[in-house]
Amino acid sequence: MGSGQQWTRPARRGRPARTGLLAAGAGLGLCLVGVAGLGAWNVQMLAGAGDQVRDSADGFLREVAAGDVERAYERLCAQSRSRWSAVGFAGWVRTPPVVTGYEIVDVSVRTKGGRPAGTVRARLTRDGGAGEERTVPMAQEDGDWRVCGDPF
């Protein structure tokens, strides 16, 4: 008996479009997972920072209202301390009408330029009972939240 040729499967046509679409889909899926993870991390970071921002602003305003200007000055960020000397800040805070009380109205935290930043809206009470609403800018510096900008 003769030896016959083995049966072979006919060659398949290449499907470069399908391969390209599968690779693109896998790449897109990987990007979406990365973006979702980054978004979740950002939300967790900002959600936990709200209480810290409130506590820092509360301490600053409490010290200003109590007349403890030296301790309030220490709660300023480096940028603000470079603009004002301790003596200049004390003179500015003690200029009438001085702050005698406060109430924190709102706290918000966001990212600005990839860095966390916060604002605290506070209702200040001054000598004679006059009240005004101010925004206290906050920035994270060395792991602590500090007043950074013009709070009054």
What is this structure's SSE topology?
Layout: H1 16-66, H2 69-74, H3 78-83, H4 86-93, E1 99-112, E2 115-126, E3 131-141, E4 144-147
Antiparallel strand pairs: 1-2, 2-3, 3-4
What does this entry look like structurally?
The chain is α+β, with helices and mostly antiparallel strands and 152 residues long. 47% of the residues lie in helices and 27% in strands. It contains four helices and four strands, in the order ααααββββ. A four-stranded antiparallel beta sheet has the order 1-2-3-4, covered by helices on one side. A hairpin with a 2-residue loop joins strand 1 and strand 2. The radius of gyration is 30 Å and the shape is rod-shaped. The protein starts with 15 loop residues before the first helix and ends in a 5-residue tail after the last strand. The model has no long low-confidence stretch (mean pLDDT 85).
Question: Key features?
Answer:
alpha+beta, rod-shaped, 4-stranded antiparallel β-sheet, 4 helices, 152 residues
C-alpha termini separation: 106 Å
* Gross morphology: rod-shaped
Sheet with most strands: 4 strands, antiparallel
Which structural class best describes the helix and strand composition? alpha+beta
Low-confidence stretches: none
Number of strands: 4
Q: What is the residue-averaged pLDDT?
A: 85
Percent of residues in helices comes to 40-55%
Number of helices: 4
Radius of gyration: 30 Å
Strand portion: 25-35%
Main sheet: which strands, in order across?
A: 1-2-3-4
Report the order of strands and helices.
Answer: HHHHEEEE
